[in-house]
What we know:
The complex is a heterodimer.
Chain A: H1 3-16, H2 21-41, H3 46-63, H4 73-108, H5 114-150, H6 158-179, H7 198-207, H8 218-223, H9 226-252, H10 257-287, H11 300-327
Chain B: H1 2-7, H2 28-38, H3 45-56, H4 62-74, E1 78-80, E2 90-92, H5 94-121
Antiparallel strand pairs in B: 1-2
Amino acid sequence: xxxxxxxxRRRAARLLRWYxxxxxxxxxxxxxxxxxxxxxxxxxxxxxxxxxxxxGVVARLTSVGLTSHALEPSDQVRAGLASLGCAxxxxxxxxxxxxxxxxxGWQWARPDTFGTRAAMVVMSGVMLVFVVLAxxxxxxxxxxxxxxxARRRAHGLVRPSLLVLAGAAVLIIxxxxxxxxxxxxxxxxxxxxGLVPGGVAAFMWAxxxxxxxxxxxxxxxxxxxxxEVAWMVVSPLAMVCVVVGATKVVRRLEVSPRxxxxxxxxxxxxxxxxxxxxxxxxxxxxxxxPGPRDLFHVGAIDIAGLALMTAASLVxxxxxxxxxxxxxxxxxx
Amino acid sequence: xxxxARSGTQPxxxxxxxxxxxxxxxxxxxxTLILSSLAEGEKHGYALTKxxxxxxxxxxxxxxxxxxxxxxxxxxxxxxxxxxxxRRPYRLTALGATALRAHLASQRRVADVGLRRLAGxxxxx
Lengths: 333, 125
């Protein structure tokens, strides 16, 4: 192999990384061969690199069921549910950050406008719906995973399951630790005067502490206790572990069409709940002024959070539409 | 094309109508070029690129080529053959030949109408 040919193959291998693993397993070798030939013929072409990058992104979106390219029905449903789960996770992180700062604020003082109070009641109700949906969705999936583990047929499921458990453990322990001492927790005198139990609000606030405008103000961040700053770095990583692990489990787990349909119905309810939560948060942003003690002030990060939640809910809607439209209807029992 | 249609195999998974090419969106153009190239006989990716460049004057970028190949294969319009020295040839299936014939006939009707109207309009080349 000449040096030029070797270079072309190395560059082809690098470009191939844009594509998902499943695509590389099917087309990788022949595509790398084509790229190597093309690179030898035209060593410099920005258009080619951009085309490969774009096609790789499209292939990745296809593999998670977000393009019009149809997958096998069960793959389509699993891909749709997995991308719905990822979108929901992004939505929940920003939604919980917004909701928890408001509910912690209510521990200090009740909002003085009806609009903000109504918005917070709506958002709190939807949060409760999300908890119920998460439990209803997780129980049967966990049952199947544990059943496979008991029969020693959980190939490819053990690591992602451990990743979910480790991430969740870090979030629960850290959230409890950093939430303790805030109003409503640890015997604080203002306990039980808010909209929701203070411990719940403080736990959610601590778990989403990383969603903060302080990242844009490093000088202010330096005044924070080092452990708190470390938690602001560690907690998003723990969330990523939970989401990546759960996504891998959903993509790899072979379950019955009946269970897929059940999860699809829950996904549909979740997408409606996302819309209702956005209506609630818009209500607060439109109505919200500083409120008593400046507790309900709307900041730039809240607007950015709302924009991200809207984008996540659109992705979730598309995912559930694809799962229902081309997957669930074709699934046979 | 007739030869390819006779030697083509059944689509591997999904049931596709002959009008399937119309559902390819922005990949309809590349898909038509690929099917037209394969109508001559089986080819691998690089040979497809060179042949299409020769007969249509279009150089399909690698990413576009494989995105279209993957869609065509998924719809059962082409079939992948056993790999030869890291290069995998593809061939047209019977369904692919039918879809290509229907699509080209439709394109020809559009071209005929356009050319007839141009001729009658007084525009000159």
